[in-house]
Design brief:
With about 190 residues, the chain is an all-alpha fold. The chain folds into 2 domains: about 50 residues, Orthogonal Bundle (Arc Repressor Mutant, subunit A), CATH 1.10.10.60; about 130 residues, Orthogonal Bundle (Tetracycline Repressor, domain 2), CATH 1.10.357. About 75% of the residues lie in helices and about 0% in strands. The chain contains 9 helices and no strands. The longest helix has 24 residues. The chain is elongated and about 60 Å long. It starts with a helix and ends with a helix.
């Protein structure tokens, strides 16, 4: 069992996470988080100095959980090509669970990244980590030169295909663009 203070902090982050993702950071007020988390105002301020601090905790937890769950999802795949294609399947599954809502980091950055450098830095870190994750899978390939691209070029291409697919998913409310990106990558590799 978690200590009461930790449970309250997680309840705040859980509630804020749902609200920030579904209705937006700017439209979510501290009082709404307090009401929906069913906590006292003092409890919130015992754990967080501001709404931005809650947001940064949300983004950190989201990123940590995403990579933990991705590693679990990809664990059965030993072949690097299958693993890379499965990463697209993971993103598709993730978007289906989120009702094709898109990337939380892109959404938050669009709302608040230009007004708070800490938010922009978190979004940039998230995208850099994804590029690094993709690069790590690509380094397992025996012969990347068959694609006619360098490792860096192929990493950038896969990253842009994936991110473009997620963006299209949020616009069209459908994962077909992400599935198309996976099919195109499968042909290329």
């Amino acid at each position: 069992m978690k200590p009461r203070g930790q449970a309250v902090k997680e309840k705040i982050i859980d509630t804020a996470s749902r609200l920030f993702y579904n209705q937006g950071y700017n439209l979510t007020g501290i009082n709404q988080v307090i009401d929906e988390a069913d906590i006292a105002k003092r409890s919130l301020y015992n754990h967080f100095e501001s709404k931005t601090d809650i947001l940064l905790s949300y983004l950190d937890r989201l990123q940590e959980n995403w990579y933990r769950d991705a590693a679990t999802f990809l664990k059965p795949f030993k072949d690097p090509k299958e693993k890379l294609l499965a990463l697209f399947d993971y993103r598709i599954q993730n978007q289906l669970e989120l009702n094709s809502g898109g990337c939380a980091f892109v959404k938050i950055n669009a709302e608040a990244g230009c007004t708070d450098e800490r938010i922009l830095k978190r979004a940039q870190k998230n995208k850099d980590m994804l590029k690094s994750y993709i690069n790590g899978i690509l380094t397992e390939f025996e012969d990347i030169s068959a694609t006619g691209m360098s490792l860096q070029e192929l990493t950038q291409m896969v990253y842009l295909m994936m991110e473009g697919g997620v963006t299209s998913t949020s616009i069209y409310k459908d994962v077909n663009e992400l599935r198309s990106a996976k099919k195109l990558l499968n042909k290329l590799l």
